[in-house]
Design brief:
The chain is an alpha+beta fold. It folds into three domains: 234 residues, no CATH class; 176 residues, no CATH class; 69 residues. Helix content is 59%, strand content 8%. A hairpin with a 3-residue loop joins strand 1 and strand 2. The chain is globular and about 75 Å long.
Length: 511
């Protein structure tokens, strides 16, 4: 803890000296207050997942640190191995020289994932990042949490600077939305992917607008853009795709000098452009590169449904097998060191062929004598959402898309909350609804920048639909939508009239 406090004080000293953090609205005292609140968020996250929940030590934070330490422990005696693992200078095969001494003991490293046709295994990037952090943390959790706090703060501040000029007189409200929205504050306070994701989103949007909207062509902006692009590609590429396309349209409207207050012109431009871009991309990937986006979404949704129902999972070169979580009598451990199992004769289970994960096959009389790798075992999720399985058809997508969008926008809500965290998320969703209503009642009579409005709406619709299609667990939905919440709340903020709300006695006294 002492080491973390020293690093925290050093960070405060640095931001007080760097011009990037100087602002005419947000004072240094305000920044200190935000940082202290984020420290409280770190403590809250630690208490919830290490003290409140008995299984907290099996969560993402600890498994990530455990895996990072496997890498870090190679440094004293085998520094070359450490460098190879951190920078990906190895193969993904079990025959790789690094597999037996290291990768075999890394819980979330994973084998080749047949569903990741377009995306790298994003579990590996946080592991590598935390292995590097151990060079200064020496395994101290508080230091790792502090680094996540710093990364998320930098991204949030960059987001604020990117959009503050679009909401005159509402800059402070924008800062409050970005920094103090409870779910953002909580989920960016742990050793997770979310702090890194919000860091990348904020910086990427900031430098993109500087370069392609404001035309400030500086080397530092170009370097940051390249760096964030590369990190997105190895962490969460789908976020990059979802943000980049609306950003390009936003920049093109500015470049073509389309009337930003004409909803009809802007809407037509967005609809035509999105149809061409998404339609063309799907066709090129499918027929030019034999990569089927629709198939990948179908597989991911079915995988999530299987995971939400729990079970014990095994994999070999041909089959992906699932047993009920309570079923421990139909398989036998053959090789304890390599975690190889044999399925008992005449046992019953469901499985999917690796070359076609769309179709579930039910085996009632097993005759397969080959060995299987143990993948995972998990209990049924208490926050699973009941959804039909996606099929590879237009009608299936058309039927499920509305429910998918609704789930991400409104769930969890009070009637389907099963834990204190889901209850708190329900409270937050209620506050979102009330904020939208409040901004509509006290809306400004001035015209709204329709380009920015449609940029946010496009991003929210596409991201929420994709998350809803591929995620059927409420806890996961709450986490996956974190990078997009600032864009969601920016929509009603554009309409809010601050002069009107100042007439409300309570708010006037507060201001």
């Amino acid at each position: 803890m002492i080491l973390a406090i020293i690093y925290f004080l050093a960070f405060i000293f640095i931001i007080n000296k760097i011009s990037f953090f100087k602002d005419n609205i947000i004072s240094f005292k305000f920044i200190l207050g935000i940082l202290l609140v984020k420290c409280i968020g770190c403590l809250a996250y630690y208490w919830v997942y290490f003290c409140y929940y008995p299984a907290g030590f099996n969560g993402d934070s600890v498994s990530t640190l455990h895996d990072a330490k496997v890498m870090y422990d190679a440094l004293p005696n085998h520094p070359t191995d450490f460098i190879k693992m951190v920078f990906g200078l190895h193969s993904n095969l079990d025959s790789d020289p690094l597999y037996e001494p290291y990768f075999k003991f890394i819980e979330k490293w994973g084998r080749a994932d047949v569903t990741t046709d377009f995306f790298l295994n994003d579990n590996r990037t946080p592991i590598r990042i935390n292995a590097l952090i151990m060079l200064i943390s020496f395994g101290n959790y508080a230091v790792h949490a502090l680094v996540m706090l710093v990364l998320s703060f930098v991204g949030q501040f960059a987001f604020y600077k990117a959009f503050k000029k679009y909401v005159p007189k509402k800059e402070l409200l924008l800062a409050i939305i970005i920094f103090l929205t409870p779910s953002i504050l909580f989920w960016t306070s742990g050793v997770l992917k979310e702090p890194i994701a919000i860091f990348l989103v904020g910086l990427f949007v900031y430098v993109f607008i500087k370069l392609f909207v404001e035309f400030q062509f500086k080397v530092k902006y170009s370097l940051v853009l390249i760096l964030t692009l590369l990190l997105f590609l190895i962490l969460k590429p789908y976020i990059l795709i979802l943000i980049l396309i609306p950003l390009i349209l936003f920049a093109l409207v500015k470049a073509f000098k389309i009337d930003v207050y004409s909803l009809k012109k802007i809407l037509l431009f967005y609809l035509v452009s999105l149809s061409i871009i998404y339609g063309g991309t799907f066709l090129i990937l499918k027929y030019g590169f034999q990569k089927d986006v629709i198939k990948t979404i179908v597989v991911r949704q079915n995988d999530f449904i299987n995971l939400s129902k729990g079970g014990t999972f095994f994999l070999n070169n041909e089959k992906y097998v699932r047993f009920e979580n309570t079923d421990t009598t139909h398989y036998e451990l053959i090789d304890k060191e390599r975690m190889l199992f044999k399925l008992n004769p005449h046992s019953a289970f469901m499985y999917w062929r690796n070359n076609n994960l769309r179709d579930t096959i039910y085996e009632t009389n097993n005759k397969d004598t080959s060995l299987f790798h143990f993948i995972s075992s998990c209990t049924p999720s208490g926050s699973a959402i009941s959804m039909e399985r996606l099929e590879y058809s237009f009608s299936s997508f058309a039927k499920i898309i509305p429910q998918s969008f609704y789930n991400v926008l409104f769930k969890p809500f009070f009637f389907d909350s099963h834990s204190i965290l889901e209850l708190m998320a329900s409270m937050e969703n209620l506050c979102f609804i009330l904020f939208f209503i409040f901004c509509f009642i006290y809306r400004s009579k001035n015209k709204v920048d329709k380009n920015l409005l449609l940029f946010c709406i496009t991003l929210i619709i596409t991201s929420f639909i994709l998350i809803g299609l591929t995620t059927t667990v409420m806890g996961a939905i709450v986490r996956y939508r974190i990078p997009f919440i600032p864009f969601l709340l920016l929509i009603p903020l554009l309409f809010l009239d601050t002069d009107s709300i100042k007439k409300i006695p309570f708010i006037n006294r507060l201001v």
